[in-house]
Amino acid sequence: MRSCGFTLVELLVVLVIMTVFTGLALPRLLEQSKSARQNACFSDFATVVGMARFHAVETGRPQEVVVDLERDTISFGSKGGVFKRLPSGLSFASVRKGFHSVRYGSVQLPFYPDGTTVNTRIEIEEQNRQQLLLEIDGATGALVAR
Q1: DSSP string of 7-44?
Q2: What pTM was estimated for this model as a whole?
Q3: What is the DSSP letter of 57?
Q4: Looking at residue 1, what is its pLDDT?
Q5: In this predicted model, what pLDDT tens digit does every residue of 73-114 receive, in sequence order?
């Protein structure tokens, strides 16, 4: 007589196969999550930098972007300005403005009416110590991720 259902061996084989597939897929999912955080960070930074540069050219007055290394935030403008926090798992490691490097406190990045700024390199660390480098070209104000 044949019974309905699965034997214990069959269930264990299926469980082992599912575990193997999960082990193969998990690193890829984690990599996509890291990439999404970095893309969000770059997008936020590009928005703030672009707005500051545009506002400086439009108004004919210098503008500043403030990078706060303690709070992991970037901001532009005072009341009602743009304020962005780095995505979770990311934090500022250092900001090099010209030849001056800062690891603590905050840094003001000026944008001038002619659209220029100071050459700047921003190092952002992930929890696993991988780094994302953002560079602002002083002549054009363009932001590039490295």
Answers
A1: -HHHHHHHHHHHHHHHHHHHHHHHHHHHHHHHHHHHHH
A2: 0.74
A3: H
A4: 56
A5: 999 876 657 788 998 888 999 999 989 999 999 999 999 999
Tokens at 126, concatenated: 């992930």
Sign of CA dihedral 70, 72, 76, 81: negative
Whether the CB-CB separation of 75 and 81 falls below 8 Å is answered with: yes
Please state, in angstroms and rounded to a whole number, the distance separating the CA atoms of residues 35 and 131. 12
47, 136 in Cβ contact below 8 A? no
Percentages helix, strand, coil for the chain (3-state, rounded to 5) are 35, 35, 30
In DSSP terms, which residues pair with 140 in a beta bridge?
Answer: none
pLDDT reading at 32 higher than 70 = no
Cβ neighbours of residue 42 under 8 Å, at least 6 residues apart?
132, 134, 143, 145
